Amino acid sequence: LSDFLDRFDLETHPQDYYAFYSRDGSYFETLSRNEARDPRVLLSYGLNGQPLSLEYGGPLRLVVPFLQGYKSVKWIKAIRAFQADPLGIKRLRGQSQSAQLSEEWLKRHGIESPKGKP
Questions:
Q1: Domain covering 2-108 in this structure, CATH number
Q2: Is residue 78 pLDDT above 90, yes or no?
């Protein structure tokens, strides 16, 4: 994702946010600049050498492996930068405000986090 943001000059200030919009016309979620610039965050267009199917969020899906699944938006159609967090749909409906996965959950599923990162 970071390479994509650089290529299309979508830089923000460190306190700003990116919003990722789904092709369904209503769903979107946000990431802080620091979350979006984490090297583990991907814009995925393929899986196992094949184009990403609609079932898995193709043709383009956001993958945020260190946050709850609702942050990994399927069917990406647009990305916008904001100065204030435009609270995504799930958080507006009461989902976890931080979307953080607990250390216990990460360990149980064999996911390693770099020191100092979620």
A1: 3.90.420.10
A2: yes
